[in-house]
Fold each of these.
Amino acid sequence: MSDLVTRHKDVIASVIAFDTDIHAIKAEGIWVTDIDGKRWADFACGTAVLNLGHNHPAVVEAAHKQIDRLMHSGCIVRYDSIVEAAERLRDITPPGIQKFAFANSGAESVEAAVKLAKYSTERQGVVAFRGAFHGRTMGAISYTTSNAKYRDGYHPVLGSVFVAPFPHPYRWGMTEEAAVEHSLNELRLLFKHVVTPKNIACFLVEPVQGEGGYYPAPPAFLEALRELADEHGIMLVFDEVQTGFGRTAEWFAADHFDAKPDVMAMGKGIANGLPLSAYGSSREVMDNWPVGAHGTTFGGNPVSTAAAVAVMDTMEGLLPHARELSKRTFERFHELADSHPTIGDVRGLGLMIGVELVTDRESRTPDKPAFQHIEKYAYDRELIIINCGPDGNVLRFIPPLVATQEEVDWALDLVDEGLTSWENQSG
């Protein structure tokens, strides 16, 4: 362990978790290099941020040029990079998302999106969905139910937040159709017994649950939410913080579904490592939100928005490659599932893939030690992977979109070997 790691632990609060003790001195593409020259392939992508890999030259160049011109505004002066970023967002977001504002993090964009829905509808209630992760600020943890530990020590959370089931077909042992019907029945009972729809400002939903276990929303579920929202004057808010900017091999997860949102929250991959997030809605909704009803000092920073423009200009050419990588990766994981009983389920969209590890397929008992073994096996062979899910047993496979097929296959081979090692060890 380097001296920097010791110093880090001495002065950096332990509440902020770091997954490794790598003392990184540089990074490029999929690779992170430590002080001794050893390198690791970062398939954690900086926690699902670096869709273009580390230090992508187009992003670095755009940031450098902007630093030489203007670094900060604080919403005092206007500048070109924020306008260009919003114009590019309008080009790639679903129809009806027409005007934008910027923030610094995913949690901030989610909170702003909910504030917008509350102001627009003049209602206070929010329906969130069990298993969701929307951030760790006090507002965001009120909507976050991926793991109860995120709320420990912070009660009471915000009021008028109502949690309904998100369809988890595998975990419930149901078909997708049955899981959707169960979730919608519970939502109807919520409206019957707990809160009437006239009190609800928005449905807040991840089109693919992230931290909660990489569960894609069944299309019928989102379509039903869209219909209920239209029927009752509720706004449908998509949290696309983790799913956006190519992670699902399309611009957004919404591109995979017929149901479209009224409001979108975006973040993570938007600036490929610089702090930035965004939220958007229709021109009418955004124009009816009066000046001063929300605000930011650093959101939409000139350097970060310049980087975002470079991300969007670059990503378009990568999406076909991402689709091919996704197709091949799902094929490989299904092949692995045929030969490894530890794999209970393979799910996801694009290159946002969750592989659920279980002690046996009949009981579906989560197997966190299996993931921990594979994680260490991979790390010892220069590959970084991370988990998700409330039980820590879902392998979160999120390679950078710039990875080659050979690099992804190498990582999949290590997962295969790690599974074999675990199964041989555990009998």
Amino acid sequence: MVMGLGRFGGGADVVKFACKAGAKVVVADLAGREELAESITQLRGLDVKYHLGSHQPADFEQADIVIVNPAVPLDNEFVQIARQTGRRVTSQIELFFERCPATIIGITGANGKSTTAALTAHILRSRFGDGVWLGGNIGNEPMLTIVDRIKPDDLVVLELSSFQIEQLAQTKQAPAVAVLTNLSPNHLDRYGTFERYCQSKEPLFQYQKLDENKPAVSIFNGEDEVGREWFEKYAAQSGRSCMKFSADDVSAEIRRVFALPGRANLANLAASAAVARYFGVTDEQIEVSLPSFKGLPHRLQLVAENRGVRWYNDSKATTPDSAIVALEAFDRSIIIAGGYDKQVAFDEFGRKIVQRAKAAILIGKTAPQIAKAIGAQPGDLSVVRFAKSLADAVALANEIAVSGDVVVLSPACASYDMFENYQQRGQQFIDLVSIIDR
């Protein structure tokens, strides 16, 4: 049984893998067939049974193996039914770790992990070419359906979410090389507290295999409070090699050829460079590789320049801290923010808006909370506007902006109150910006 196909095919890789392995596959999902149409289309021609719209205890009692989507909490009642009846409960990421013959580099954090993972793979390819694979939460490769193409001497770079790390922790699996970009409150709607969120990430380091002859490699952000704490905690262990990185590690020569804006992206580059140097990539190779790295969609992505105004899509910024990165990347930007409430505080976000933004245009359920956080700060932000839709927000931003300004969609929130996901939100922003003044 595959529990959770997902609206955009997140579980399709697992279904294809199980069918190829000769299993009789049942897909169980709380969503209906119409909602899952895009995902089901990916599985056309496969012998799959669909149990949609609800979960039935009998399905979980009778399945030999239950492969659980990362979005499903570990204490889900149907997962517990499977465990209590002796079924094997596993996940895509666990199955991949069991089968992958190559060295795995796992990258996690609250912010920057996607960019760091993509940048790490890009730099490593400057030396190892096609022997470098990129996947995991970033979604570039369907991991299980390509695992038989991965060779023992290859390198696999995985972006790992807290949900995936929790799944790996069930069998105490971890990558040979692990990187923490930073930690700040996120997913508190699931974890409740920042401490519990941090605990969900730590198994990435806790379960690394310690070996004096081939030490586990653990890399932490020296500018991050949790990163510094974990570095001190793990550096003393034998069989482990610990490193710290900082944005200040990036040389002037390398900065000159690195196109991504902001200090946070320099920290991402420093983390990627630390991994690359461990595998023998020289600074000269790093420098040569960087001009061809263009960044990722929805992450401080420059999408247009119109009448001297630059428009950036940062829809992936689904936490206040990730949106603060955007504010710090530009001087006096116009920020579009707001969305689904993940139960995180906006106090610091409000303070940074007052300090660094020319204007704030607020949308979604959290708009009143963000406005309240802005109003509670000393200082005077001249423009705070509310918009009923993203289209209205773009129109307001266009009215306010003058030549030399930057407009950035950096919501600080998830998208689920108005959109299906952050990709849809970002694409709508791109489409709206593309027709300005036409």
Amino acid sequence: MLPLVLGLLVFFLVHLVPTEADLRRGLAGRLGENRYKAIFSVVALVGLVLIIIGYGKLQVMAGKNPEIWTPPIWTRHIAFLLMLPAMVLIVAAYVPSHIRTATKHPMLAGIKLWATAHLLANGDLASILLFGSFLAYAVYDRISVKRRSVKIPTAPHGWVNDIIAIAAGLALYGFMLTVGHAWLIGVPLLPGQS
């Protein structure tokens, strides 16, 4: 449990820095913008690696990851449905589009849907800690974005980028559903996968 909790603390503490504009400005001013970004990236990566290792170990260690609640089977169907717009929104965060403009911060919206979907489908302590932390952070950061009055780039003319974001999001969803989740996470989503 310790690597997961430590990873979550490291990952989210470093991600809280940009939510405090004065703190971020001060650090970037003292360190220089490039050094600040490099340190931020390395610390976030260390946190992410600890999260992956800690969560992975808890999934295979008998008795170390208690089941807090047993999700009914229908919650998995809802999770599958929620993951579809989540993947589109996550992709839209990187594609200038009407989707990105309308949602204001599609990455945070996608993370909220992703975390909610996984909380519905998983009742073990490690999953509740992992996905609950991401959901709480995404809610906090969205509130922080409003408070900081972050400017959202306007959408380009036309709908080509929206089609690209949707198509890429659907492709990512299809990949994760058919092979990606089993390959990357070790948990097959469809019957007959190994």
Amino acid sequence: MKKLFVLALLLVGTTTFAQERMGENNDKLTPEQRVNLQIKKLTKELNLSDKQAQELKEIVVKEIEQREARKAEIQARKAEKKKMASEELNARKLKFEEEKMQTEERMKKILTPEQFSKWTEIRKARKEKMADRIENRMGEKLEYGK
């Protein structure tokens, strides 16, 4: 009985510690660290050359800057307790899609066709994973990419 109790405490303690560590890594990274981490992952997943990695770094920096700007805008709106008008929301969605298309065009120029298709698959898998996480949190079915 004593061993079972100690085992349960150990299991709960390590699980809690592992969850805290994961949150630390994601939340406390600087934009530069995020860029370097993303480039390392892409280099490994796509088998990039040094030249490709350098060219992709420019794209990743731009994407992270855009993401940070959108995040700051959302937080400012939440602080003001302002909701976005439907016209603003549609304009924002169009701008986001335009940025996404520009990124894809730049990626096509840098990556080989095989690398580009693999990159597309990786992005799709990440979107699905994100949709699953949101679905689990909110309890409703979300579909991306339609």
